[in-house]
Amino acid sequence: MRVLITGAGGFIGRTLTSVLLQAGALTNAAGISETIEELLLLDTHLPPASDPRVRHLQADIDAPDTLKKIAAWKPHSVFHLAAVLTSAAEQDPARAGGECFGAGGIDRRHPRERCSAAPDLSKFDRGLRRVIA
Q1: Which residue has the higher pLDDT, 118 or 37?
Q2: Where are the domains of the chain?
Q3: What is the largest CA-CA distance in the chain?
Q4: Domain range 2-132, CATH architecture
């Protein structure tokens, strides 16, 4: 199983990465445990990792090529923790809160509305099994 963690450089993302690596598996919707083969960590700042299952994608989630790289990697599960916080949110309040997967990429014009609905995952392979936001 390939697992993507957006916002992986933050406190929750780092903690989740550690927990998933230690557990080594996730339980799917059918209740079957699946081995985590790879973790793709996405954030603008990422801590170093020595585990061979970890891949880094140090990028802004709304950069034009970022979603293409994620889609090419074909994650099975996504933990969507990316957010714009602190001073960046103060400078641009429309960016505050969670980032949203939109049909054309990230849509920051209406972040609350986009996040409250299921994300558009049409760019991803049919192998994507779940998004946890």
Answers
A1: 37
A2: 2-132
A3: 45
A4: 3-Layer(aba) Sandwich (3.40)
Q: CB-side exposure of 97: number of CA atoms within 13 Å?
A: 15
* Tokens encoding 23: 């557990």
Phi, psi torsion values for 73, nearest 5 degrees? -75, -25
Whole-angstrom distance, CA of residue 132 vs CA of residue 118: 10
Sign, CA dihedral 60-98-11-88, equals positive
Q: Write phi, then psi, for 101 (nearest 5 degrees).
A: -75, 120
Q: How far apart are CA 24 and CA 28, in angstroms?
A: 13
Distance separating alpha carbons of residues 41 and 127, to the nearest angstrom: 19
User: What is the pLDDT at residue 7?
Assistant: 92
